[in-house]
Amino acid sequence: MGHLVTPHSHDSADKTDAALESSSRGMRVLAVSFGVLMVTALVQAVIVGLSGSVALLGDTLHNFADALTAVPLAIAFSLGRRAATRRFTYGYGRAEDLAGIVIVALIAASAGLAGYEAVKRLVDPQNVQALGLVAAAGVVGFLGNEWVARYRIKVGREIGSAALVADGLHARTDGFTSLAVLLGAGGTALGFPAADPLVGLLITVAICFVLRDAAREIYHRLMDAVDPALVAQAERILAAVPGVRRVGSVRLRWIGHALRAEVEIAVRPDASLVEAHAVAVEAEHRLIHDLPRLRAATVHADPDGPDGTDHHTPLLAHR
């Protein structure tokens, strides 16, 4: 009875349908936000050609990069809907983490290109034309990014996709960098032509901060980091299950936008195999229903006693 491992996955039709619907909603968000950001960036690109504003160029490049982040995420959502196989026994949810690496690379590329163009314009100054259009393009960039940010964050939180929420926060930051374009246009209008490339450099710095935050988020996912509050919540849920005398280790990990759990509980030492199994099943059942975004759990039941007895003695050399 010391190794009652009962992986009742709860992969019923309800769970499968919920997972597919989450991915479908994510795909819709990506398609709509891709269209909005591409239109925003194309409008800005036309004005860059008319004005020669390097600050607006930096913002436009960043908006194009932000729109393109929808592509790897869409691929990841599509892969994540595939069933697990004998080779990929946990499914394909990790594709979201790989998409995150691509997103970080795109952000880094936009930062590098924007910085290069700003420094180049400082070394070789050029007049900026159509300042009114430049200012209008900055406003367009802000409005497009803010709308996309709200949409991505709202749906991302509803379906439990950290990648989608992070991408929404990224879009919100992009909106404020778009407003910075107004500073460049205003400075140039007041007779300070260096304002445009200087604002371009400021936008580059802002992109670098976004890059740092995005890289940190992806690093945490790749290292299986979770919010400690989720672990504490899982422990409380398990402790409240009838028949659970003690809660042992609790391990959680994100696989795509779903959580998996591996937990240990202690039951009374004289419980029958059937009784201990029933406690483990109830513990898993409550975890799946009460812990947000949890799709599957494996519960290991140990006898709680007798005192001084170690039921894992054969495994000590392997731990």
Automatic annotation (TrEMBL):
It is a multi-pass membrane protein. InterPro entries: Cation_efflux, Cation_efflux_CTD, Cation_efflux_CTD_sf, Cation_efflux_TM, Cation_efflux_TMD_sf, CDF_Transporter. The chain crosses the membrane at residues 29-54, 60-77, 98-116, 128-148. Keywords: Membrane, Transmembrane, Transmembrane helix, Transport. The keyword DNA damage does not apply. Pfam families: Cation_efflux (PF01545), ZT_dimer (PF16916). Residues 228-303 form the Cation efflux protein cytoplasmic domain. The keyword Phosphoprotein does not apply. It is found in: Membrane. It comes from the Bacteria. Residues 298-319 are annotated as: Disordered. Residues 31-223 form the Cation efflux protein transmembrane domain. PANTHER family: MITOCHONDRIAL METAL TRANSPORTER 1-RELATED (PTHR43840). Belongs to the cation diffusion facilitator (CDF) transporter (TC 2.A.4) family. This is Cation diffusion facilitator family transporter. It comes from Nonomuraea typhae. The lineage of its organism: Bacteria, Bacillati, Actinomycetota, Actinomycetes, Streptosporangiales.
